[in-house]
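We read letters as residues; the fold follows as tokens. Both lines appear below.
***
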Amino acid sequence: MPLTGKAMLKQLNRSIVFRIGLMMFVISLLAVVSMASSVFISDSAESDAYAINLSGTLRMQSYQIVISLMREDLAADERQQRLAKQIQLFDQTLHLPTLQRPAMAKQASEHFQLYESIESRWQARIKPNISSATLQPDLLLNLLNETDAMVKDIDRLVQLHQHHAEQNVATIRLIQGLALLLTALLMIVAMFIISRHIKQPLAQLTQIARQIGRGDFTGRAPDHGHDELALLGHTLNHMSDAISRSHSLMERKVQEKTIRLQQSNQSMELLYNISNSLQESLNHPSEFGPLLNRLAKITGLSDLDLCMMTASGNTPYEHLMTKDKILPSRCINKDCNGCMNANPPTDNKLTFPLTRASTNYGVLVCQLQPGQKLETWQMRLLKSVADQFAVSLSLRDQQEQSRRLVLMHERTVIARELHDSLAQALSYLKIQVARLEKLLKQPNGADKAAPVIDELKTGLSSAYRELRELLTTFRLKMDGQSLRAAMEQSLLQLQERSDSIRFSLEFDVDNLPFSPNEEIHLLQITREASQNALHHSGGNEVVVSLQRDASTPSHIKLSIRDNGVGIENDPGKLNHYGLAIMRERSRNLGGELNVQRHPKGGTLVSFEFEPEYYAQRKDEVTGT
């Protein structure tokens, strides 16, 4: 909206710049007026000096005319000519504008009267009588008297011009003095205005700006008045208030964010500790208590309950609380339907089921105060902790199931080992007993029973040895050792039986995962072959090697080589029962056992198979 003239004038009057500019304009105008007046008066004074000079010239010319009249040495004609020139020169000087102007400007003044008197005396009394004064002595005397009177008037005129010139000089001095005084006053007023309305407010504004720069928004700039600095102070105060409010708001937001980050950090730390603690103590339900108390401390919820139950149960086997209280009747009666079905009664209670893969392991209950509401982060943390508890209980359940499966698998392995070794040995002994009974019923059967009795002794020794080997094998595996450690310990036990033979192991399959069944069979084949070498080879070195096949990396090759006398042409006659067991074990692993003489001497027992790990990978690739 455009401003009106009065509004613009009012706004200009409020402007400190306008006031300072106006003051400078007045000072400049005063200086210009003073200088112009001085120039004008100086010019007038110069005219007065010239007029004084001309007046003096008139006086000198008057005396020259008188002298020319009184000279008797001049001829009449020469005198007349000289007087004519002097009269003409006097007329010209008398009527010069410099002499006429002051008189004409002030017709009622003494200056005018003197000039008129001199001119009339010259024109009426002196000039007409000059020519005849030389002939009449009476006229000459009268002319001298008139000239003397005119010279007096001229002297008076000179004095008037001099007085006028002095007045001009005084006027110049007065004007200069007044101008200097007014200029000094105006300068004082200007300095006062600058100090009052510019310097002090500007210094305060600078101080406030420095405080704001240091982060101190409590200072107040001067904002009284309507000039630019007052407007700047008002704007600075408004800006300082806005920045202070923004700063306070930012501090509150930073504090809120800090609190939220601390809560998030504590929540993450709690979840991390819960995960670690639950993984380390899966068999101890009481470990949930400290975690539940810490959850209550972080969330600020003092009344938390944790009810845990089995996957197939419907009543809790453990009830943990963070607050000592009298349990309601439904908890005493173990009526958990309301909490488990997430449909609690209207008593300010929130429930978080411990559910994992559609299996319920309990519930986390949060009892609120009347009118209390949970924040979003509290709800998320309670839900996350409930999920962690559910995961822990689920892992514990899975671990128990895995233990059961491992136990069943171990029992199956033991049963198979007993069936493959000891049961067959007992069956063999049973057959030999039946043969012995049949021989004893025959005439002279006692003489024929000796070989059968020897077979029974040999079978019993083999069965006893197999039983010891099985016990040793199972003890090695139940100690939780690796296959390398079990084979090293088994060879060490054989090494302790004899000082004349040295056993060594070349094991190059540390990074391959064998199944328990494969480990038992490999260990038993190694023990049986090494024991045969100890008893029958007659050598001094046995090398056991278990490594990948160079031509087929997915196949594993086991070899037991000695440097003894070598195997007979019919190996079935030597410990045929142990050899049969080894071959049976090799067939169970999908391989074939080979027993042969080594080209460099001794016996080589070798066996090659493909582990279940590689077989399963092939099935996954082919989709079978």
